[in-house]
Amino acid sequence: MWATDLQPFLMGLIVSVLVGVALTLPISSAAICAALGLTGLAGGAAVAGCCAQMVGFAVMSFRENGIGGLVAQGIGTSMLQMGNIVKNPRIWIPPTVAAAITGPLATCVFGLQMNGPAVASGMGTCGLVGQIGVYTGWVGDVATGLKPAITAFDWLGLLLVCFILPAVLTWAIGLLLRRWGWIKQGDLKLDL
Q1: Sign of the CA dihedral 167, 71, 75, 157?
Q2: CB-based contacts of 94, cutoff 8 Å, min separation 6
Q3: How many CB atoms neighbour CB 127 within 10 A?
């Protein structure tokens, strides 16, 4: 957290990518964030990385998995793709690159902070816990006078970092990798 405050671009990128990858691995990114007490700007970067993985995989795999896969990964977990990642690790490139982009945007442009519970930093869009954690942090900051109000810029940052950019970036990068033949039809198919 201290390093992210000092170097928000670099650490925003690193924290976003690492926590996002941890979210998709069969380990608990929420437990890691809770154990580290990951809040503040670093927590915001963690949320960005987790959202990039979850929303990214949900959107990128829509053609194979339809609405069920979109919901299962988008508000469930990107961990569902682990078997497919083992078969073709290249499918992990698009959401990870999206995390590398949204993490610094979260820290440097939008100042997205997790001032809610640290465990929410590692939840991404799972049940919208990450977004609820950011929002409760805003409310707490307003109540204590640390923040004058929740602004439209706050909401824009939350929407862009957590939903819109991960979807668009991952879809575009995934499309490029499909054209190169690195990702083929069926590589992202889930057994739902």
Answers
A1: positive
A2: 56, 60, 169, 170, 171, 173, 174, 177
A3: 11
The DSSP secondary structure of 77-114, one letter per residue, reads -GGGGHHHHHH-GGGGHHHHHHHHHHHHIIIIIS---B
What are the DSSP calls for 111-161, one per residue? Answer: ---B-S-GGGGGTTTGGGHHHHHHHHHHHHHHHHTSSS---HHHHHHHHII
Q: Dig out the tokens for 71 from the structure.
A: 């919901």
- C-alpha 138: how far from chain center: 19
Per-residue model confidence as pLDDT tens digits over 80-124:
999 999 999 999 999 999 999 999 999 999 999 998 899 999 999
Q: Rounded to 10 degrees, what is the CA torsion of 94, 107, 25, 84?
A: -10
The answer to whether 17 and 107 have CB atoms below 8 angstroms apart is: no
Token pair of 126, please? 């799972």
The most distant pair of C-alpha atoms in the chain lies apart, rounded to whole Å, by 53
pTM for the complete prediction?
Answer: 0.93
